[in-house]
Amino acid sequence: MGRAEELAIFTAALYGGGCSVLYVHGPGGIGKSALLRRFAHEAAATGRPVSMLDGRGPEPALHDAGAVLLIDDVEHIQGWEGLSRLPVGVLAVIAGRHPPDLRRRADPGWAGALQVLPLRDLRAADARALLDRAGVPAESREPLLAFAGGHPLALLLGAATAAKAGRRWTPHQDVVATLLDELVGEPPSAAHRRALEICAHAYTTTESLLRATLPEDAGTLFRWLRRLPFVESSGLGLFPQPVVRKALEADLRWRDPEGYAAMHDRVHAYLADRVRTASEADVPGAVAALLHLHRGDEPPADVPDEFEEEPLRQEDLGTLLRVAAEDAARAAFWARRRPEAFRVYRRTETGEPVACSAWLRLAELDEDELTADPVVARAWAHARATAPLRAGEHLAVGRHWALPAYRGDSPVMGMIGRRMIGDCLRSERLAWSSIEVRQPDRAWAGRLRRFGMRDIAEPPRPGEYGLFAHDWRAVPARTWLERLNRPPATGPAAATANLAVLSQAEFTEAVRKALRQLPRPDALAASPLARTRLVAGRHNPATALGDLLRRAIDDLGEDPRAAKPHRALSVTFLRGAPTQELAAERLGLPFTTYRRHLTAGIERVCADLWHQELYGAG
């Protein structure tokens, strides 16, 4: 059943209205042999003589000008010489796993005579009809379709087990093993198998990814992958057909769970770094590759090439207003003030603009901006009430607009979301990010929650805006990526608390108190400084905080201008003077002079550590 388009092409050729050689190619189990048998039946019904051969037999010798020659497994034929000498009027159909060599297709002798027909998965309706005919129970159809897609062999194998299982279908290892035998075969070496497993796990595979995750020759392995009949390519790299991806993933998870986890970590580390280092144009693809590893129960996404993204130009303002529709006034307001924040999304084939987005970086807001846009005003108010911006920090608000047909859980909205996540992970000194979600974008809202962003208001009514916010000081990009890779519910990150976000006044007071508590690790453990980025992630935060304070005092000794404050700090906090009066006596200073030096030293330590808190130790 199915294959209506392929049958129509064959019928046209059968009646002399098409090519004289039809080349059908596709991976194992896709239904090439079954299609040839249907072609044979159609040809026989017209009264034409039919010869069915597989590639293992001798070259055909046909003399009947009306014959139909059907050849399967053409890879086993050494050359096409016999076909090139077929009598006029003979129709030949060739089937193989690989497409014909480009040199043969470019041969003038074949021009106009040859039509190449890639054989794809069955359409969704045909796949469902196949399961109906096989008697698959209703509760098993959706999980079986999610695994097999429209791949005929996978559907038939799954249907055979589903009919016997008497419960909701899951891919049994016998099904997976049979599929791998038929679709993949035995890779030439362990290195080739590892490359194939990475290709199945990653969104797309490049030679760079293989070089970063495998010790073997990445170039050789990449060339081998790209020639496999079940591996396709896009501008982003190589990717296997869906059923091959799922079968390889399921097999490795079952066969070697520890090896699977190690491979996953290597791929995750490479892709996380790729998000940070990618060019601006490559950010959505880099984020898509990273999030693909953490899609949960969602099926693998299609490799996108339907839309393209570009900066907003002056001539695009009319487009922005049309796309923004009822929100056009706010979009125009920000486009006038911050045009560099905007991007336009167009259909690749037609250039039609269908959506726009803005990533508004805000260090301060004036009254006009607060009044003009309630979404931005709400994000700003939430940040000020929860953990205000500190010196040099900024807040970012992500806004988007799309034509009605492209709203909700659409590919272009996914592209906009990936761009915004990329902006979050790549921004310097980003304190808060807030991303608007308009009903009915429930799928996108669910993903934002899964990625650690939380609602800052009640869920919006239809037509209203919701906001999801994240404090990147409390959970920095590195921590966010670690949690993404090891969700708190199941991994080590479960014990990792958010970082403390202190104002400068709170931070200074905490440093003053911690200096007095240096001899007491229990008191240092309770200090809010133990939860700041200064010592976050250390095995023992209290010990790390004590070391940090001692090092800050020692560092003053490297500055000749701070010699006197350094001596006052050392005697008071490092050498354990019982009282400040005794410390002044040890230094041979009047108490008021000692206090002046000590105060200067404490202020210097507070300032140095505050700079590290904001900008890092570098």
What do these coordinates show?
There is one protein chain. The chain has 618 residues and is an alpha/beta fold. About 1% of the residues have low confidence. The radius of gyration is 33 Å and the shape is elongated. Helix 10 crosses helix 11 and helix 25 packs across helix 27. A hairpin with a 5-residue loop joins strand 9 and strand 10. The longest helix is centred in the last third of the chain and has 25 residues. Strands 8-9-10-11-12-14-13 form a seven-stranded mixed β-sheet, sandwiched between helices. It starts with a helix and ends with a helix. The chain is built from 27 helices and 14 strands. It folds into five domains: 115 residues, Rossmann fold, CATH 3.40.50.300; 47 residues, no CATH class; 112 residues, no CATH class; 189 residues, 3-Layer(aba) Sandwich (Aminopeptidase); 112 residues, no CATH class.
Report the span from N to C terminus. 66 Å
Which structural category do the helix and sheet elements fall into?
A: alpha/beta
User: Radius of gyration, rounded?
Assistant: 33 Å
The total domain count is 5
User: Which superfamily, in CATH terms, is the homologous superfamily of the largest domain?
Assistant: Gcn5-related N-acetyltransferase (GNAT)
The CATH topology assignment of the largest domain is: Aminopeptidase
Just give the CATH class of the largest domain: Alpha Beta
Average pLDDT figure: 86
Tell me the helix content. Answer: 40-55%
Question: In what order do the strands lie side by side in the largest sheet?
Answer: 8-9-10-11-12-14-13
Going by CATH, the architecture of the largest domain would be 3-Layer(aba) Sandwich
Q: With helices defined by DSSP (H or I, 4 residues minimum), what is the helix count?
A: 27
Characterize the main sheet.
7 strands, mixed
